[in-house]
């Protein structure tokens, strides 16, 4: 079973994402900020990361840049999930190592579609 780390400072968003991802047969772990997520990844690298941008302690971009430098940090498929919809923000996320981008609010259809695009799930 593939593991997905959901990184978001909102407990509600993490809960919604968990439900969607478990329905897609992922084992789900959670982190409330980038620092917590980085510590998790250094101990147990997930297959995928659903990553929020704006968080306290360490934001998504800083987490992603550090993750990609760490041993094995090139492996997880990272899907940014945020309200940032400016083209320059999307470009910054991709340049920093994100594989795909989802806008909030999201639903199971959007998550499944994006995860299929990056090869994490079989298209519906």
TrEMBL record:
Going by the UniProt record, its keywords in alphabetical order are:
Phosphoprotein
By its UniProt entry, which InterPro entries does this protein fall under? CheY-like_superfamily (IPR011006), Sig_transdc_resp-reg_receiver (IPR001789), ST_Response_Regulator (IPR052048)
Is Plastid among this UniProt entry's keywords?
no
Q: Any idea which residues bear 4-aspartylphosphate here?
A: 52
Indicate the segments forming the Response regulatory domain, all copies: 3-119
Superkingdom, according to UniProt? Bacteria
Q: Cite the Gene3D superfamilies for this sequence.
A: 3.40.50.2300
Q: Name one GO biological process term.
A: phosphorelay signal transduction system
Q: Which PANTHER family match?
A: TWO-COMPONENT RESPONSE REGULATOR (PTHR43228), TWO-COMPONENT RESPONSE REGULATOR ARR22 (PTHR43228:SF1)
Q: What is this protein called?
A: Chemotaxis protein CheY
> Source organism lineage?
Bacteria, Pseudomonadati, Pseudomonadota, Alphaproteobacteria, Caulobacterales
Q: Which gene encodes it?
A: cheY_9
